[in-house]
Design brief:
By secondary structure, the protein is mainly beta. It contains three helices and 52 strands.
């Protein structure tokens, strides 16, 4: 049911569009059909302009443009051509029967459809030219004579052809029919059979129907009456006049030359770069021989030849009488330039579009040439105008306030102008600083490389300069210049064992804001063992664990001030238990410092193995401020 309603609605809409004249309907249809901007269907045959005969069956092939799926497709003909049957997919072929008694001429065909998404779509229309192949035996015109009532009046002819089989058709729009006028100074005719009265006199309009070398004609006599008024002079030329200024007025006199004692003249109107004042309306009605005046002035809005007209309406003529006007604009028009910014304030490095519009201060026309964008006295860029507009993307403005102007250089028709200054504020761009370490945790006295990476926060851009200061807590370590790649590195082997809160602080520069990043660096003691870790003792025996603290190079750094504290025992089977020490050898489970151990001092822990079964164990312990847990091995048998 929904598909039928959609088709009926679409059919009605398309029929309404196609019911008009062929020449105007193509554009209307392509815009109106379902609001589409590009056709989704295409008629591949017949080709545009194919000649067909009345009564002929046309085969119409339709395809889709692109990957669009259709659930209803049909072909609509301009009335009286019929509408085709409905196909459920494309490509599709349809049969259209041309009516036997159709008027000759061009008719539109268009493919229409409903997509799977319930959208109305269509094709660009094509035309078929319906023509009989034989020559008529007779042509007649309706009307067969034209007597105009006034100059400027128009009349449409309707041409009928009678063929040898007795058929009588309207052939006014036939491609085989041409029109000529015997005197175009009196009356003209176009190929749409429209006659226009030009001036007093008589003429003959001839309609000629030609097929091959055979033709048949119809003649229509035309008469045009004399004008009801005369114009003195018949045209005005104002010569040269500066653009933006107004000339002195020139006068045209209108005289009633008809036999109408109550002729009304007016309204009167001037067109182009011309203005008028007149006495015609206030003086009406004019008696026979009566006169009124029209005063015309010229104010050119652009240089070069300027054309216009005064149109005079009267109570007898159907079409207003034109009085041609001409003049030449010289000099240049004043202009106005304006400037805008896409972002104000902006930040350093941000691409900010500066745009200008140049318009005539008075009059009309479109300035051409170029605009120069200036930062104070410093030119930034020169850009060509397009339709009176120009734009420039500025990303190199320094931090601060900038007085930006757009200076239009003028052209042959327009004077130069400078915009009001735009105060463009550029702020510092924000940055982010991140800090990383080459090793974490690191060994005591080992060289650690700290890397600070500096980046610019969008929409800012560019390469920050200046330096980054590295801190260990509140203590400065070093200040390092920022490289062109936005990095600063510091190598240090002086960090004491323990946890260090490191900070990299970028101090900013003229164009970029300061920022900082933090990192927690762990520095661990090395454990140098003073016993054979593969040795085992009997369960229940005491195992003396002897070690000393060392740096990355094995140097003894043990001290009585550094406490080693045992925290537990584990083995590979998953055993975990407390530390036991016989007697009071290791109070509080702390290793005992012994200056005789190691190169310059060490530690001993007398470990009780009571209750431990056979296996390899690890003694877990901490060392002073070092946050890294340590372990040594021993065996029980």
């Amino acid at each position: 049911m929904m598909l039928t309603r959609n088709w009926n609605r679409f059919h009605a809409q398309s029929r309404k569009i196609l019911s008009g004249a062929v020449g105007g309907a193509v554009t209307i249809f392509s815009l109106a059909l379902a609001g589409q901007t590009q056709p989704a269907l295409q008629i591949t045959s017949p080709t545009d302009g194919t000649i067909v005969a009345p009564g002929q069956t046309i085969s119409v092939n339709v395809t889709a443009i692109g990957n669009i799926s259709f659930k209803q497709v049909f072909v609509i003909g301009q009335q009286p051509l019929p509408v085709s049957s409905i196909a459920n997919s494309v490509p599709a072929q349809f049969s259209i029967i041309v009516p036997q008694k159709i008027s000759e001429g061009k008719y539109l065909l268009t493919a229409s459809g409903i997509t799977s998404a319930n959208q109305d779509q269509g094709s660009s229309p094509i035309t078929i030219d319906v023509e009989r192949p034989d020559v008529p035996t007779r042509l007649t015109s309706d009307p067969d004579r034209v007597i105009f009532g006034s100059q400027g009046e128009t009349e449409h002819l309707r041409i009928l052809a009678t063929f040898s089989d007795g058929t009588r058709l309207n052939v006014t729009r036939s491609s085989y029919l041409t029109f000529t006028s015997s005197n175009t100074a009196v009356a003209t005719v176009d190929q749409n059979a429209l006659i226009r009265a030009v001036a007093k006199g008589s003429a003959t309009i001839t309609a000629t129907y030609t097929v091959g070398t055979q033709s048949v004609t119809a003649s229509v006599p035309v008469s045009v009456p004399p004008p009801v008024t005369t114009t003195t002079p018949t045209a005005l030329d104002f010569g040269n006049q500066n653009v933006g200024t107004s000339s002195s007025s020139q006068t045209v006199t209108i005289t009633n030359v008809s036999n109408n004692q109550s002729l009304r003249v007016g309204p009167v109107g001037a067109f182009g770069d011309f203005t008028e004042t007149d006495t015609c309306t206030s003086s009406s009605p004019l008696a026979v021989g009566g006169m009124c005046t029209i005063n015309v002035s010229f104010a050119p809005t652009a240089t070069g030849s300027r054309m216009g007209a005064v149109r005079v309406v009267d109570s007898m003529d159907i079409v207003p009488q034109p009085i041609p006007l001409s003049g030449t604009g010289i000099g240049q028009q004043p202009t106005t330039a304006t400037i805008t910014s896409s972002a104000n304030p902006s930040v350093f490095g941000q691409a900010t579009v500066l745009a200008t519009l140049v318009t005539p201060s008075a009059g009309s026309g479109t300035p051409t040439g170029s605009v120069t964008f200036d930062d104070g006295a410093n030119p930034l860029s020169t850009v060509a105008l397009s339709s009176g507009q120009a734009a420039f993307s500025a990303s190199s403005l320094t931090v601060g306030s900038h007085s930006i102007t757009a200076v239009y250089g003028g052209d042959a028709n327009f004077l130069t102008s400078t915009s009001t200054a735009l105060s463009q504020v550029v702020n510092q761009a924000s940055t982010t600083t991140t800090l990383t370490s080459s090793a974490n945790p690191s060994a005591l006295d080992a060289s650690v490389t700290l890397t600070a990476n500096l980046s610019v926060v969008a929409p800012g851009a560019g390469a920050p300069t200046g330096s980054i200061t590295f801190h260990d807590g509140s203590s400065p370590l070093a200040t390092v210049p920022v490289s062109t790649s936005g990095q600063a590195t510091l190598s240090s082997a002086t960090l004491a064992a323990g946890s260090h809160s490191l900070t990299a602080s970028y101090g900013g520069d003229t164009n970029f804001k300061a920022s900082s990043g933090t990192f927690s660096q762990q520095v661990a003691y090395g454990i140098c063992v003073l016993y054979d870790q593969t040795r085992s003792v009997n369960s229940g025996a005491t195992f003396p664990i002897k070690v000393y603290l060392c740096d990355v190079n094995g140097n003894d750094v043990s001290s009585s001030g550094i406490v080693l504290h045992a925290t537990g025992i584990t083995n590979v089977s998953g055993f975990a238990g407390p530390v036991q020490s016989p007697g009071n050898a290791n109070p509080d489970n702390d290793f005992r410092y012994d200056s005789t151990l190691g190169p310059s001092g060490g530690y001993i822990f007398n470990l009780s193995t009571a209750g431990l079964t056979t296996g390899t164990y690890s003694l877990q312990f901490t060392a002073g401020a070092d946050p890294t847990p340590h372990a040594v091995s021993f065996g029980v048998q």
